[in-house]
# Entry
Amino acid sequence: MEHKELTSLARYEPPPGIFWDDEKYRGEAYAAYAWAVYVAEVTVDLTTYSVQVDDFVALQEVGKVLHPVLARGQITGGVAQGIGFALYEKVVWQEGRMQNAQMTNYIMPTSADLPPIRVYFEELGNEHGAFGAKGIGELPMDGPAPAVVCAIEDATGIAFNSIPVLPEDIFKAISKASGRSTDGRALQGVR
Amino acid sequence: MNTPPVQCEISLTVNGEARTVRAYPMERLLDTLRHRLGLTGAKEGCGEGECGSCSVLMDGVLVNSCLVPVLQAQGTQIVTIEGMAKGSQLHALQQAFLECGGAQCGICTPGILIAAFHLLSERPRPSDEEIKESLAGNLCRCTGYAQICEAVAQAANRGDER
# Structure
């Protein structure tokens, strides 16, 4: 098959009032930072070493809430993914391929696994966004997993430095820390 | 010695309508519904019975249509998402999903609506725990399930008012 010359064009025009110099790295690289607070309450079961998130609070500054129902859905959905990220979703790589690329062995949260996710908004506005809105869907993917892992630390006294924190990871860490297996109690923590 | 696969005639009732299709006996009910009957509401998610997006009712039983050979559906009553609304009149569950934000990307929605429909047919006033348990076989990546469970509860409450 014969191909003609391929041309590709790209153009970016910043919104008025936003300046960024890519050569000198000066200006506003991100015009609208969003802010959030995430609080997780967990119980660590010392028989099964599984973690249950009992309650979750998300407070998120989004500039302006444009549609309350959909806005809340973006946060609850992101938090659910964050909890999955923290507790279940382990990607196992083998020779460049994902070894567990099935819903059978890549575990994500179901409706029965999640706590109530209580969402609160703070609206400080954003002069560049539509009606003062900022981005909303990305941030709830970022904070919840650290909140859950910190709550596990609060409960167990052990800091985990990778996710997901699976029951076998908790078992190993607690056994190592105490020099023996534990006695089946449950530990609670909040962060 | 390879004999070519032979299609057979399957008669079943889909959303109240008698249908007869020629299909390979081990063909997945999901494929028969989607490709031979044009009912594309049931979705293929995982194709291995884990995600529930292909959920339909077969003789009142909630099944993953990706795991049902169509031969097994011979003579059965099938209900798919297309059978829920009455013309342009949405089912109470569909209306509640719309109002509560129960759907985002929409791939899991037909299966979840069928699972919720099944739940309410067995337990018209489910507790929040029962709702969560009964939808645990239907995976949703977008919503975090909160608004889905609220929609099911709202539809159940409205059912009481009628």
Notes: Chain A has four helices and eight strands. The mean pLDDT of chain A is 92.
